[in-house]
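Appendix B. Extra example for self-study. Work through it before the problem class; the solution is given directly after the inputs so you can check yourself.
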Amino acid sequence: MSRREGRAERPGAGVAAPDRRRNRVTGRRSGRRMPGWEIVLRYVALLAVLALTVGPFLWQLSTSLKGPHEDIFASPPAFLPEQPTFDNYVRVAETIPVWDYALNSLTVAVVNVVANCTGAALAGYALARLRYRGRRAATLAFILAMLVPVEGIIIALFTTMRGLGLNDTLAGVVLPLSVSALNVLLMRNAFLNLPYEVEEAAFVDGANVWQRFARIALPSVKGTLAVVAILAFMGAWDDFLWPLIVLSDPQNFTLTIGLNYLHGTFADDERLVAAGTIIAVLPLIVLFACLQRYFFRGVGEGAVKG
Amino acid sequence: MTTPTTSPAAASGKAPKGRAPSSPLPTGRPRGGRSRIRRQLPVSPWLFAAPGLLVAGAFSLYPFLSTVANSFTDRRTLLPGRFVGLDNYREMLGDEMFWIGLRNSTLYVLGVVPALVVLPLLLALLVEKQIPGITFFRSAFYTPVVASIVVVGLIWVWLLDERGLVNSVLEVVGAGPVGFLSDQWLLLLSAMTVTVWKGLGYYMIIYLAALGNVPRELHEAASVDGAGPVRRFLTVTLPAVRSTMVLVAALSSVAAFKVFSEVYLMAGPGGGPAGEDTTLVMLVQRTGTGLSGRVGYSAAISVVVFAVTVALMLLVLRADRKEDA
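Solution. Structure tokens for the complete assembly:
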């Protein structure tokens, strides 16, 4: 991705990027060709790792498609379903309200994306570009908040939520994640890397702080904003520990909690659990496949800049 | 860019407020930072930061302080609790479950961290070269990171089941079914494997960014000097990614010590046979929730988790500094 970064047309990002031209095929940074045996060896290794990382998902997909009369415990195992069927997906929806859970997860994830993008961009801008008394204290507060591990405060978070009367609601699920301190600091770094001149010109032209933020600074950090959005979506959709603690009524479950419940209650039919997990993971894989370009580029930039 | 909204905004913007110089242009003595843009309305910066600060304060900093405060009380879920000094900590020392949790969380660090420092680096070296299709492989290797831990846990429970895929393959080879999920130690080892499997892609990306920063001149100079690939890796790549390795070690050890989901999902809420696979965070969750949850005692265990993670972080960073000297 460092190679892509060189080409990225992001203002500010390309400023310090050194020349990163590489040979298109061999990838060598100089012009030498990679020997044929090395290419073969690399592909063999890549395919082996592919089998290890993606194989388990495919096995789960295969299980979820196997018919009721197939032996899913066969040895040697059968990788392709003999009587492929979507029946398990229908049955999992009859067993638990899996589509309601998916809708709950989607609600939480979308609200989380909007809240994080807005809140982190605003706060990041305030930390990077505005001057006021207490700015250092504000920065420190975010750094400390980032360092506090959620696993350690989970019970206090629960009692705080109860104090607010938000236990067992989706608002209670989403609020603690709604402006992650990490995202604030990511946005702060992105704003810090922008050149000052453009904003100064706007200032001279009389643009106020909201105009400078919304029309000049924000459009220049779209890459980081995309990363924040993806992280926020994945974080909310995948979260397990906090929803497990804050939600108690099965009506309000998110998909992850619903799946754990399904597993605990109906563990006897592995086909159902498999169908449920595929419902939970497929949207994310598709989303990620569509956005991975932005993601890898943005993460690379963040990591490079420290 | 934008059509300048002339006089009113500019006037209010440039009105000298207190010490703030009115001109945005360099004025000879730039105070403090790089910023030459002065504030306009004294209240708006705080409006920008307010949502973030509210969330950070209410859902990170306040719960943190209240965890520490609760750890000195006998607070329960529905009862307010009173100050009991160090009683919770004293009780912890005699609590067998606490020691089991501490042992398992520590073992988790020892088992997971070396694998997560080394394997993703090898993986990054594998996907670093720009060969056709490499983008596909990179994203595919990242899939386990994208998937929810619940999905990952349930997939592996199914794979490692007594009658699951791994065991049916083992049976074909002639090895009897292995109780990956029923034996206390194998269960912990299986959970570690899942953690490593899920973390590979994440740390691979971090390494990949670091590898992209290795100056190519160094590689070229080394090969001109006749250094083979292994030699080049040891003398050029390794020193260049060393600080990244430390970062990965710090991140993964803190995460490993706080492990919850993998073990919870694979061992069940009770923590496996006789609770022998309980980790510290599982213990926090188990003692602190429910109607009779012992919030105070659970908070005391949390404080231990904080302390150990901070210590781990300092230890790793210190080890790094020593090597530098």
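Self-check: Chain A touches chain B through 124 residues (CB under 8 Å). If your reasoning did not lead you there, revisit section 3.
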